[in-house]
Amino acid sequence: xxxxxxxxxxxxxxxxxxxxxxxxxxxxxxxxxDAEFGDIVRAADMVVPDGAxxxxxxxxxxxxxxxxVAGYDLMLAIAxxxxxxxxxxxxxxxxPGIADTAxxxxxARYPELRVAGTHHGYFAGxxxxxxxxxxxxxxxxxxxxxxxxPKQEKWIAEHKAALAPGVxxxxxxxxxxxxxxxxxxRAPDWAGRMGLEWLYRLVTQPRRAGRMLALPRFAYAVLLTxxxxx
Length: 230
Prior knowledge:
Layout: H1 2-14, E1 18-23, H2 25-33, H3 35-43, E2 46-49, H4 52-60, H5 71-85, E3 88-93, H6 98-109, E4 114-119, H7 128-137, E5 142-146, H8 151-163, E6 169-172, H9 176-180, H10 189-193, H11 197-204, H12 209-212, H13 214-228
Parallel strand pairs: 1-2, 1-6, 3-4, 3-5, 5-6
């Protein structure tokens, strides 16, 4: 986490708009099937392993990673950093009202944090340009986008130019606003430590069963790649 935050600080200092991707196994599989999404992930300024599956895959392929960096935790860490540095954040996404509640939760955790604005994720494509312009003019240094993958990553990639020069770091955060708002419970620490967060989510959110099919596909692809490179 410390290394990731150092990179974030370097991005802010460098200027321009930077994209942080929090990659999990489901997204990795999607990146092989959606060329546009795959290109966006590869072009990101920083990709962190948000999931035990990515850390495991790196180990199997001989590319060890220091540790998992959960996207939710990185979002909180960036918010804390912003509070310390007098910078502001913008929350975009979620159902109407969720971003507002999540912003209040962040401010309760970090009283010095400035929230430059919020906007729900239920907007038409034609509104995207107006929203991006509003975010740019809001004074936010950091933009958290909760539209779900790959929509959030594609939205960031499409509007990076419109977010300059105000925003410095953009990150897709998936369902993190729901967790912050108390709508969805986060997996307990033991599940994360044991790499079983996926199982906890499956039990508590059965509707995710179809999406979980990506996990065995991911494991198969990793093992097949390992066999081919032996």
